[in-house]
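Table S5 (text form). Sequence records supplied for joint modeling of the two-component complex.
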Amino acid sequence: MPQFGSFSLLLALGLSAYALLAGTFSLWQLARGTPSSFDAECLLETSRRAGIASFVTLSCAAFALVWCAFTNNFSVAYILHHTNRALPGPYKFAALWSGQEGSLLLWAWLLSAYGFVVRARHKVDVRLSAYASTILIGIQVFFVTLINFAAHPFSMVTGAIPADGNGLNPLLQYPEMVIHPPMLYLGYVGFSVPFAFALGALMMRYPGEKWIHITRRWTMITWLFLTCGIFLGAHWAYSVLGWGGYWGWDPVENASLMPWLTGTAFLHSVMMQEKRGMMKTWNVWLIFSTFLLTLLGTLLTRAGLVQSVHAFAQSSIGDWFVGFMIFTFAVCLFTYLRQRDHLRVEHRLDSLVSRESSFLFNNLLLLAACFTVLWGTLFPILSEWVQGTKVTVGAPFYNRVGVPIGLFLLFLTGIGPVLAWRSTSLRSMRRNFILPVIAGLGTGGILMAAGMRPWQDEATLYALMSFSIGALVVTAVSSEFLRGAAVIQQQTGRNLIAATVELTRRNTRRYGGYLVHFGVVLIFIGIAGSAFNQVNEQELGFHDAMTIGPYKLVDQSYTQDDNPNFRSEYALLDVYKGNKKIAQMAPEQRFYYASQQTETMVANNSNLERDLYVIYAGKNPDTGQPIIKARLNPLVNWIWIGVVVIILGTGVALVPSRRVLSNRSRAIPEREVAETDQAPVHVIVAGGD
Amino acid sequence: MTGFRNAVKFLRLWAVVLAFAVLVLPTLGSGDPSNSNERFNKLGHQIMCSCGCGQILLECNHVGCPASDGMRQELRAAMEANSSDKAVYDVFIQKYGPVIMAAPVFHGFNILAWVLPFAVLLVGSLAAASLIYMWKRRNLRQLPAPPPPLSGAMRDRIRRETEV
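The corresponding structure-token record, covering 853 residues in total, follows.
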């Protein structure tokens, strides 16, 4: 099987290289428009088919590696280093992406899968798809070359083959780890598709904005995968690492956040290009940057440039990525300089107070956030170069610099939707903002009356601002829903819920987007809860008790368990609120035999109000007594609920709108509707974003 | 001219809000905590654990950490010996180097770490606002003649077509 895998990889390289050369040559011939002795269209078709075949061969290679993991083939070095016989089946499958070589194979395979879909749907626009397909295969050639020559997943063990493998990193032996990395990779790799379409459209001077319509779904799905990947990672960190937080500003976490921020900016600003033919250069560079940031993230993860708790940190493939990034940037820059006149805008901004300018400032804030994360991630290296001393850039930096930017973004989330396209008058602003502002200020006032003291510490201040701005945003978004639903209710006589559903179905993109904003507010509320975290740590003998907030934890027993993969030791704690027993919790510590590593398994009792998060922190070597660390983390669940709402909202936005008014929309094209003061009724009810 | 006045008002509002973010927010709520536990909690969240786990000192919980317990005791001792937070931090910097602080100390080259993100945002905002202002003026100069008033038939058609 390893030989089959190696052969598949070589074949994939040959097919990808052929597809790239044939695609590039035939597109060049077609662009020149001069008659030649061969049929360029025919050659282009062979390139497309070679691309599809490369997906098949890479699928074979991925299958071969998984097969080797399931059959305990320790003659393959990768399988030896990342699995063992006692490893449960799902984690053997996860071994595909738990190491450097396997994860690069996963990357290449996902890229070929995305390419397969692009090539299978090439009839959407044959020529543009051909450009995008050739660019995608170019990226694929890089990754397949890498796994063939620099990080081969089927390298064989030299000498005697050990009887058992070294096992999977215990931290990765958690159900979410089976889906978190593939989600993240689907997001990372997925941004290659809008990038390829954008670059292709620019290369061929594609007329109009159709390429945006073609890639809109790709971008949204990719963004959704990346969002899910990031938050699955956060949930994994929260559930497994046992430090009570979900985001540690580790460089590898930052690496995933940066393309997410620029991707979010792109999703917003691209609407301005669709609606009003604006910001074309900006959008092209946003998607270029997003793709380059996915490469930078991979470079940071794998080249050991910055200190990280993640596993891939030391390897020699950094130079490959640096080279590829420089090459990609050069191609982007060259194409832009050659074709920049094609990006001439059709309209310019008319007013500072308009939907367009809110998108512009939203983009500015998202890019400032991205710059902050990039700057914070790279500053230790810069400091070492300039000062000769390394510094740490951790949570306190990001909290002070990043949180204010995040709060502004949240604020814009609320005010953007109630501004009209082109220009908004003061009267309209007053009318649309009065209720949200009252809600925001009222929430702040109530919370302060209830005892929140924002001057006490930074965290409380930010929490108060999050709750207040959150209330403002929710009111603004709800009033948008209600205003539109009221019109439908008035016209059709349906009840408010049915009218709201109808409203959403008529413009899924707009109202799906509002749901996403609502999810963002929930996430902010969940994060704001961290200002009120409580911690208690105590040695706990039999029948001893400890308190945290209103809860009392009473130790009932300590038990041990054993299986072929690990030995565990856990405490059984009864949880009381007042005199009522509400739960029993079992925080655990495991010792994994293969890797000889000890890990904690957190016990978490969670509801909408708070998480009671209990860690078995080992035994005191002096007294032999177990140490229990308990944390009371308020509102954390709202973060995960917010993510579900974001998924739901994106799902709604992906559903095509009902075209009940399509004929009417054709009669009065939306771009020609002069929106000065307030969006016209048909726009509110069914039309524009 | 109403639009222009609105724009100026909006720009002024944005500048105030941004200035608030840059100048005031980071300094608010950073007063010294009143009791020693709060101070311990505050200072312990500004220092890294030296074991290499990459965690904040008070959040390092990995099993058998050789450093965090000792460092917590050192922190308590330094707090008792020094009344100012800076002096406590200096004790740790002298012993472990600048890398022990969870964020760059606001001094020398490190100031750049703190200032640059806000400077980028500020410059970006000003550039965007100036650009919009410039475009707006240009648009005003190139304003086409107003369209003829809508006819009754057209009004009826619009009403008909926008009915739900």
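Note: Confidence is low (pLDDT under 50) at residues 663-689 of chain A.
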